[in-house]
Amino acid sequence: MTSTAVESKVLRTAYQKSVAAYWNNNQQDPVNLRLGEIDGLYHHHYGIGEYDASVLEGPEETRDARIIQEMHRLETAQADVLLDYLGDVQPTDQLLDAGSGRGGTSIMANHRFRCRVDGVTISEYQVGFANEQAVQWGCSDDVQFHFRNMLDTGFDTGSKRGIWTNETTMYVDLFDLYAEFSRLLEYGGRYVCITGCYNDVTGGRSKAVSKIDEHYTCNIHPRSHYFKALTANNLVPINVVDLTAQTIPYWELRAQSSVATGIEEAFLNAYREGSFHYLLIAADRI
Prior knowledge:
alpha/beta
């Protein structure tokens, strides 16, 4: 199959092509690259936990480097929390990272569970980058990244013990996504999601949430849609954790860094006014 044919199979709509173009064209985004250079774990998500205020003190010439390192610690802490909720994963199990970005969480999962991990993303650049990182980490036999659509992964039915999405669900229809995850998960398998979602109680997207949508070319879902789509596809929530208060310090710190993009104010306003929530949802396949 030619590269053009493969692309048309993976990117089926104009919107998917625009999202892929966004991530392919933001290859040198310092928010991801500078943080990943610290230890070789490249994330495409945000952080949780209180930051160490001492990073803002000390010599001015090294202040930004301290902030960058602390931001990376908070992002890695977020990935660790997500992996905690995958439950009892054995070396013989298989996991799926849906919307795998530059691959940091997949590598962490393999290091923790010693099992097979596949990642899928519609960014060809991210696939190449993440596979190179797997080689660097010496885990490329067990951790592999694929140019595939998370709505139609091509993996065998019932082949996955666990699946996660980390800030990627706002790019797809939730009912279509969870239908595919329900197909992929074995009975009793676990799905874990960390996502931003808007608060239905406030009556629609706030101005701050709309700014986030526009910035990332995404479509943030209301909170209620996650639970409707999960239960419609035999995925029963077992844990729901509101991480909103825990992520605000990360954004406060990022706003003071050299990698700030200007979107920090929208995130902080949305979280503080209650129109936007940062949730972790763990659900079991029944």
